[in-house]
Amino acid sequence: MIQFLLNQTLVSEAHIDPNLTILNYLRRYHHRSGTKEGCASGDCGACTVTLGRADAGKMIYETVNSCMTFISTLQGKQLITVEDLQENGRLHAVQQAMVDCHASQCGFCTPGFVMSLFTLQKNASGWQHGQAEQALAGNLCRCTGYRPILDAARQACEQQEDDSFSRQQAATVRRLDALKNYPDRAIGTSDLRCLMPETPEQLAELYLLNPGARLLAGGTDLALQVTQQGKTLPLMIALGQIEELKRCYQQGNELVLGAGASLSRCHEMLATRIPTFARLLERFASLQIRNQGTLGGNIANASPVGDTPPVLLALDALLLLQRGERIRRLPLSEFFLSYRKTALAQGEFIRAVVIPDVTASQNLRAWKVSKRSEDDISAVLGAFLIKTDEAGIVRRARLAYGGMAEIPKRAVRCEQLITGKALTPETLTLACAALEQEFVPLSDFRASAGYRLLVAKNLLRRCHASLTGELNLLEVSDYVP
């Protein structure tokens, strides 16, 4: 059974299809049609809803794409939709801002924008253009109304006022805290089940007993099998209630990121420790996806164009893998075997990601090249960690790419070629030539093989220019209008 608050109404569900998305649950079971389906793939944001969770006596609000978030995610949370914002027939401040700024045209995308603005207002301490752009980047307006929508965001952030959610915060926290110790750890029907362990030990036991189960972390990729491919997943094991898998902490010079930590939570940890990695995460899909998607899921997915693996390869990251009571450490460079195939044994899962030398990460450079600046999959992603001595001789080199092979992959030959040499233009020319020997990229709708190879070389040249100080261009992520 799961229990959650639909605004302030306690809801319990037990015998329900775990393949059901929050979007379809709202529309079918509660007749809330304000939440729209635009794409069923997490691209347009029309389905955006807000999830609230209690944390240290306060409410934390995050947006998610309800079209690809399974209902099990609601356990112990507050679900807020556009229907909940009005109070006694009076528009909420963010809704009024959309009216005042003429920010709604055809109106189909408006509920999603309103929920993103509502969550932005809850999390903002005032108007910040960059924060607003991040909050709205996952919402598409097909009527091209972005300027008035940003005007509405500014008004909402500058003219904040108490609403029913802030007045009821203490009571909501108490009610959600009371839901944390729920008796049953499963939902489903006779032939469709979702198991919901609370500890890594329970997960390990369940996964050994049910090795064919699909592990459900954020579900931002797994859910597409249901919403896009029409599949039914008969047995899932949801990881959302395992707090240990979400822990992120620094121990000495080692950074440990829980495999179940959302990419948003990882961003918070990385912002002051590995800022290059944090900036790259700001271009990972949309905020709605980053709030739900997990670091472990992005790795285990084993996509050749995943954004985090190349960076982690450059950082010499290790994986903590658990099967039953056994935990082993495996270099990430040994994890990817072939296309979508990994070194995970049957019944084994990723428990955490370990970055061994945080200090070395200050030399990290990483860039993502994609057709769109925001909310897009990379054509090529390059991550580079090069350390030189006082004489300018390369003593350590880690060059990793996504989108250049069937797996995220280090350019080992290229690393060996530049190690022990000064990184001169001549060495750089040889290094770029070596990339041609290491990678035979594919051509697809994102980029041709020739374009990918050229970009890979140019990113290496860009890294050299950045290290030598020749690159003085302002990065897009640093620009504030």
Number of continuous helical runs: 17
What is the mean predicted local confidence, pLDDT?
Answer: 95
What is Rg? 23 Å
Going by helix content, strand content and strand pairing, the class is alpha+beta
- Spatial order of the strands forming the largest sheet: 2-1-5-3-4
Determine the oligomeric state from the structure.
Answer: single chain
Instruction: Give the CA-CA distance, first to last residue.
Output: 48 Å
* Morphology: globular
Tell me the total number of β-strands. 20
Poorly predicted runs are 476-481
Percent helix: 25-40%
**SS strand fraction:** 15-25%
Largest sheet entry: 5 strands, mixed
Can you give a write-up of this model?
Residues 476-481 have low confidence and may be disordered. The protein has 17 helices and 20 strands. Strand 3 (48-55) and strand 4 form a beta hairpin. Helix 10 packs antiparallel against helix 11 (275-281) and helix 15 (412-418) packs antiparallel against helix 16. The strands form five sheets. It has a five-stranded mixed β-sheet. The relative contact order is 0.09. The chain is 32% helix and 21% strand. It has 481 residues and is an alpha+beta fold.
